[in-house]
Structure formats: structure tokens, C-alpha cells
């Protein structure tokens, strides 16, 4: 219904724009700028309004778990990570495997000291081959529990994070092989860029994952904080040698007919890039990872209908990013000089629609924070810049990531 309304409303725009780029060209551009994004936004908002999170059958599970941490030069950051693990309210046994990926600092020594200080069962392993996938796969060989949780060495867990993550798994159908946790920003006061990312993680990423989890097809069980069934990871060959190893791993699960959930109450906090250069490298890697997933497992190869549909959505994301980068942004510049070919006064209607959709997402997240006794920090500057500028940063960065993957350019991690 929303797309039909958009098409009806855009007829004058389509007609006038056709005089400059032909009707097929105008239809191609407007579809990428308005019709498909409008459909996806409406689909997300309506899905979240209809969502009712299934109740947890067991809120105090006792299954033993292994936390797998791949670490490279994390001597400073791993102390707080292990401290937060020691503070978990989880009743089951927690084993910790720290895989030192050939660090040049005292990562291993610090982890062992923290284990004794915090009373944790920590085992340190050494993996000399560089690469997160090598470190994780080395650790996987030593996992003896049914469930394994991956955690980044600079990510801090909420006290009930593991309990909620395992609770969601034991309350799920048998075909669920992984549960993604909710990762939020902890260093949002560092720079304006970090403030913007706080809202992206809090509203955009978390809500997208909740939408996907509703359809049992969370597209990325992110390595920063997710739970996996150990045998399932081993059956698909472990973590692949890919820039988006967690994306490809998740899509391999889909190919097997398994499903992936998301648990919004299993919260962890991570540091995000505070400089644009590092932010651009991170997000271009994410874009490359999505393409790697599409190359590894085609959407039509997924046996589960919901997974087929949601991975299929990723096929049109590059199209949206390209039209936004090469049409919307130049159109905005032309608009400033009175040339309303692409962007015009009617475009201002997007702002109240955007604010309304973000309000729906905010209400859901506020309920999560209330249940966890967390407080939403004031961040008005970050919100305004997130609404007005974030997509204008993200689409060109993503396009650069697609180009990098197409030409198989060198991977840059930091």
C-alpha cells in the first residue's frame, strides 16, 4: 500500500524527470531512491509493530558454555572484558578460551593474570597465522561444550547478557543454530562521529536485527557477540577466510536449512571508530562482507522461505547505495542552486516520515533498556546528524566496499 501511494505521488516527478534522462532512466533512479527504500522502511516499521517476542521458557538455564575470544594486541582492553564475564549472573559453567593471534604485547600474560584475579576458568592458546578466522577455528578445536559464544576482546557484557542469550537458545525450535546478541556503543562521547554511530547501533542495527530475528533469519550472527551451536559451526567448516567471516558463516547456516535468532536483551557494549578513516574502512569491510555472503550462498539457494526473502533484499542494497551516491547526493547539490531535478521541496516530507519510523524504533529500544535497568544517554547532536547526514556517509563508503570486492583489492582491517 505504501509503495502504491509512493508511485501515485511520484507521477509528476517521474514525468518531468523523464525529459532529462528518458523514462527508463527516470524509473530506474526513482525506484532506487524512493520505491524500494520506502517499501523496506514500511516493511520494517509494520513488522516491528506486529512483533511479539516469544516468551523465554527457561530464564535461568545452566548449560555450560565456552566463550571464544580472538585477541591481537589486546593487553589493555581484555582486562575489562574478562572482568565483565566474571560478573555474569549466569548459573551455568563458563569456560573462556583466549586465542592469542600472534600478539606482540602481553595479551596472554594479562589474560592469565585476570583469570586468577577474577576466578575465571581461562585457557590461552596461540595461533601464529594472522587472521581472525584462523584464531577462531583454532579455538573451536578446543571447545568441549554444546554452545560456544564469540566475543570481541574489546566488548563488554551486560551482567545478564549470557543468561539471556542462552535462554533464547533453549527456548527456541530445534532448527535454531545461533542467536545474535545486541551490540551497542560505549564510547559515544569520544567524537561527533561516535555520537552518530550510537544512534545507528541503538536504532538502525538493533531494529534491523530484531526484524530479521522475527522471521528467524538474522542475516549476521556477528562475531562481536553471538552464540552458536558448536556442532553446527563444525559441520559447515568453521569460520571461512573472508573479510566478513561472520556473514558467510551465518549464510552457510541458512543453506543447511537452519535458522538464526536475535535476542535484544543480550546486550554488549563495544568501542566504535572515532576517526572517519577508520569508520570508512570498517563499513567498507561490512559492505564487502555482504557481497561475499551473496557470492557464497545465493538467496534462491536458501531452503527456508524467510531466509530466501531477507537475503534477497541484500541483492538490491548495492542498487540503492549506487543510486543514492550518484543521483541523490548530486541532486541535493543541484537543489541548493534551484535545480529541482531529483531533490525538491516535496523531499522535505521524508523528514517527518523518518522521524516517525525512528520513534517506533526508539519505543522498542526504550523497553529493552528499561528491563535491563539501563538509561538512554542524552545525545541530541548525534541524533540530528544521524538523521540528516548518516546515509550520505554510508552509501558512498558502501559503494567503495563493493568496488574493492569486485576488483579484489587488498584487505585493510584497522
UniProtKB/TrEMBL annotation:
Signal peptide (UniProt feature, chain positions): none
Domain of life: Bacteria
Membrane-crossing residue ranges in chain numbering: 20-40, 340-362, 383-403
GO MF annotation, one: glycosyltransferase activity
Keywords from the named record: Glycosyltransferase, Membrane, Transferase, Transmembrane, Transmembrane helix
One Pfam family of this chain: Glyco_tranf_2_3
Record CDD domains: CESA_like
Family: Belongs to the glycosyltransferase 2 family.
Protein name (record): Biofilm PGA synthesis N-glycosyltransferase PgaC
Amino acid at each position: 500500500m505504501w509503495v502504491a501511494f509512493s508511485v501515485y505521488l511520484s507521477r509528476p516527478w517521474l514525468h518531468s524527470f523523464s525529459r532529462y534522462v528518458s523514462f527508463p532512466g527516470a524509473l530506474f533512479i526513482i525506484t532506487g531512491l524512493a520505491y524500494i527504500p520506502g517499501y523496506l522502511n514500511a516493511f520494517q516499521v509494520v513488522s516491528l509493530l506486529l512483533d511479539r517476542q516469544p516468551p523465554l521458557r527457561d530464564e535461568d538455564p545452566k548449560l555450560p558454555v565456552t566463550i571464544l575470544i580472538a585477541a591481537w594486541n589486546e593487553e589493555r582492553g581484555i582486562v575489562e572484558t574478562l572482568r565483565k564475564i566474571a560478573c555474569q549472573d549466569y548459573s551455568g559453567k563458563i569456560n573462556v578460551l583466549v586465542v592469542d593471534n600472534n600478539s606482540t604485547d602481553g595479551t596472554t600474560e594479562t589474560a592469565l593474570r585476570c583469570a586468577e584475579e577474577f576466578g575465571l576458568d581461562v585457557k590461552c592458546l596461540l595461533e601464529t597465522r594472522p587472521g581472525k578466522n584462523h584464531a577462531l577455528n583454532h579455538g573451536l578445536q578446543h571447545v568441549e561444550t554444546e554452545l560456544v559464544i564469540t566475543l570481541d576482546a574489546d566488548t563488554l557484557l551486560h551482567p545478564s547478557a549470557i543468561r539471556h542469550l542462552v535462554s533464547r537458545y533453549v527456548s527456541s525450535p530445534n532448527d535454531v543454530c545461533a542467536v545474535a546478541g545486541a551490540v551497542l556503543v560505549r564510547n559515544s562521547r569520544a567524537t561527533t562521529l561516535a555520537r552518530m554511530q550510537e544512534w545507528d547501533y541503538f536504532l538502525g542495527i538493533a531494529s534491523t536485527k530484531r526484524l530479521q530475528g522475527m522471521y528467524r533469519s538474522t542475516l549476521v550472527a556477528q562475531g562481536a557477540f553471538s552464540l552458536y551451536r558448536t556442532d553446527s559451526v563444525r559441520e559447515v567448516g568453521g569460520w571461512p577466510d573472508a573479510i566478513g567471516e561472520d556473514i558467510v558463516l551465518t549464510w552457510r547456516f541458512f543453506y543447511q536449512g537452519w535458522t538464526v535468532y536475535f535476542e535484544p536483551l543480550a546486550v554488549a557494549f563495544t568501542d566504535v571508530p572515532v576517526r572517519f578513516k577508520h569508520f570508512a574502512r570498517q563499513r567498507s569491510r561490512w559492505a564487502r562482507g555482504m557481497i561475499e555472503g551473496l557470492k557464497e550462498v545465493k538467496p534462491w539457494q536458501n531452503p527456508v522461505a524467510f531466509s530466501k526473502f531477507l537475503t534477497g533484499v541484500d541483492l538490491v542494497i548495492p542498487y540503492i547505495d549506487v543510486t543514492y551516491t550518484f543521483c541523490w547526493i548530486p541532486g541535493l547539490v543541484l537543489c541548493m542552486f534551484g535545480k529541482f531535478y531529483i531533490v525538491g521541496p516535496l523531499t522535505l516530507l521524508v523528514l517527518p516520515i523518518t522521524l516517525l519510523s525512528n520513534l517506533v524504533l526508539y519505543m522498542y529500544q526504550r523497553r529493552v533498556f528499561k528491563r535491563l535497568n539501563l538509561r538512554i544517554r542524552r545525545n541530541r547532536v548525534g541524533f540530528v546528524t544521524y538523521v540528516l547526514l548518516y546515509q550520505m556517509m554510508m552509501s558512498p563508503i558502501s559503494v567503495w566496499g563493493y568496488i574493492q570486492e569486485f576488483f579484489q583489492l587488498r584487505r585493510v582491517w584497522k
